């Protein structure tokens, strides 16, 4: 089994550098790293080209780019999944700095018939700026100043994580795309992400709900696969997309109206 790490990005080369540095320091490296670029300019391209020269992860990096036509995470994720040659996908955002055991933790919970949704630790602007300037990020813990909320999510403790998973019962298919893992074939079976969701929000929950309709169970990962969300201003509240999500759920739609099939051979 081969594992791909897909990370979305848009005009944030400083955060991209930090995230790629955290990928380089993983105890287990992914087999390929696909940077799903939603229309960034030359600064991002130059940063990626620099990382391609790195002896550790450079050969694994592939840059998947689309023109800047507004916020289109569904489209660029579909294009990256279509380009992937791996069986299993771990998906993050380009402002999610990873704990060194992030990939290792995800690999330990891989199961057929499941999609995994993790969580994130939100950092404030001051700490984010310091990390981007210095790349000193290896000692963030529950006591670190600059964590905005949910400090408990800093805790990585495998026995507690296993206990949680063994006793977990799915209760909701709402979720976040910045820490998600799934089988590539399952994504293709529901036609990937629905690109008719435009702007910020809920295209990831729609994906999870449609997976549930083909029998894929959602597994919430806690106390493992820790990631740190570098600060940015809020992109919107997603209220319009939430209405669309509720309507799609009432209709019981399984396959994305506009999805990954347009990019597959």
Automatic annotation (TrEMBL):
Residues 5-155 form the Glycosyltransferase 2-like domain. It comes from the Bacteria. Keywords: Transferase. One of its GO terms (molecular function) is transferase activity. The keyword Nucleotide-binding does not apply. InterPro entries: Galactosyl_T_C, Glyco_trans_2-like, Glycosyltransf_2, Nucleotide-diphossugar_trans. Gene3D superfamilies: Spore Coat Polysaccharide Biosynthesis Protein SpsA, Chain A. Pfam families: Glyco_transf_7C, Glycos_transf_2. Residues 172-232 form the Galactosyltransferase C-terminal domain. The keyword Transferase applies. PANTHER family: GLYCOSYLTRANSFERASE, SLR2126 PROTEIN. This is Glycosyltransferase.
């Amino acid at each position: 089994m081969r594992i791909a790490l897909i990370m979305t990005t848009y005009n944030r080369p400083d955060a991209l550098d930090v995230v790629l540095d955290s990928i380089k320091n993983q105890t287990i490296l992914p087999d390929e790293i696909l940077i799903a670029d939603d229309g960034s300019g030359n600064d991002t391209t130059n940063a990626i080209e620099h990382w391609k020269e790195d002896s550790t992860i450079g050969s694994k990096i592939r840059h998947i780019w689309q023109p800047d036509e507004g916020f289109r995470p569904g489209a660029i994720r579909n294009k990256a999944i279509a380009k992937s040659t791996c069986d299993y996908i771990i998906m993050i955002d380009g402002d999610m700095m990873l704990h060194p055991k992030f990939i290792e933790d995800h690999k330990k919970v891989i199961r057929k018939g499941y999609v995994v949704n993790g969580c994130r630790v939100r950092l404030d602007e001051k700490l984010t700026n310091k990390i981007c300037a210095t790349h000193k990020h290896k000692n963030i813990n529950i006591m670190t100043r600059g964590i905005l909320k949910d400090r408990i999510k800093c805790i990585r403790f495998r026995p507690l994580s296993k206990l949680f998973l063994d006793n977990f019962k799915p209760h909701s298919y709402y979720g976040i795309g910045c820490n998600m893992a799934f089988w590539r074939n399952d994504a293709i079976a529901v036609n990937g992400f629905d690109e008719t969701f435009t702007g910020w929000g809920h295209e990831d929950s729609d994906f999870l709900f449609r997976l549930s309709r083909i029998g894929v169970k959602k597994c919430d990962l806690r106390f493992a696969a820790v990631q740190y969300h570098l600060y940015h201003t809020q992109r919107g509240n997603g209220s319009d997309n939430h209405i669309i999500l509720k309507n799609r759920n009432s209709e019981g739609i399984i396959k994305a109206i506009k999805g990954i099939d347009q990019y597959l051979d």
